[in-house]
Records
---
Amino acid sequence: MWKLLVAVLVLLGLAALYLWAVTTWTYSDGERAGYVQKFSRKGWICKTWEGELAMVSMPGTSQEKFAFTVHDPALAEQINKSMGQRVAVHYEQKVGVPTDCLGETSYWVTSISVVPDIQFPPGALVPAPQAPAPAPMTPAPAPAPPATAPAK
């Protein structure tokens, strides 16, 4: 009986150690800039803030979406206040988290800052995507000179 209790305690200790390791160790970190287009508190039991950042590199181009998770309620409040503004978020990527209870994504946002919009000078034209140029036509071969009869 004691051996079984010790084995269960050791397994629980190892599981706790693994969970601690994957939540404190960062696989990668970085920053992304864009506009927060979706941000909500989700979860059946463990509630986390889940968001989506729309990243636009140039007006007129298609956007890329960056899904992220926020655990800090104060940071979630900052994000809610910055909706509609261009922001830069700093994130840490957590790999190996065994459950969605800690967030739906592996990208955990740790800070946010509002950045100014991209300003274009007055009269600046944003280039529109262009259709491919038509293939150049090859010139027709020059006609052969008329054959002349040899002189007699």
---
Amino acid sequence: MSEILKGRGVSVHYGGVQALADVDLEVNENELVGLIGPNGAGKTTFVDALTGFTRYTGAISVDGRDLTGLAPHQRARHGLARTWQSTELFDDLTVSENLAVGSRRPSPWQVAKELVATPSTTTPTVEQALDLVELGWAADFMPDELSQGQRKLVGVARAIASGPRLLLLDEPAAGLDTSESEELGHRLRALARGGTAMLLIEHDMGLVLSVCDRIVVLEFGKVIAAGTPEEVRRDPRVVEAYLGSAGAQRAAESLDV
């Protein structure tokens, strides 16, 4: 299994505050890796470092290519695509147009041509991405005609439409009900089997534990655990990070029963 993402010793400082400290994380082809931790653990900061939106020390590579010094748009061209916690859609464009913006990488000739001709926004890539999240029916809708959960799914589909090597999902299940979250999980697994590597940040532990191949846990910017969902679920450091020491003791007693 080939390695898509490799992060080594990734650290981020904001003034005197260390948001990440020597984080190591890998994602392989066809793999769905979860990145979890309490609020403020550094999860989104790590994705910001990967995608070039914050300065970091350490090394990050995609498909063996060192990303040092590359701007966000250059990293996107190397196969990184992300969603955002807030639903950043173009509200004056239709759903399919929102996806077309994310999926197209026109050449200079195409840009010149489109100055005098309107490009098509219905492409197999856009249609497939919408079908993947079951929003094909909404292709011609405006974003403000959709629910918050549906808008989140449009953001996921837009990232998928770019055909990334690594898809970075920042809380994609936020705003979804239980059944929608479960369905999203099924579709993410299908996407991973199809060859798209993913890093999933999510507070829905049921979703993370059910769909991820491996999970990395952050607390105060440091990796405190990593392994399979079952290994992470039983790790006392993880339980304590989420529940506190008293909750960790009760959880340990329940697991021994």
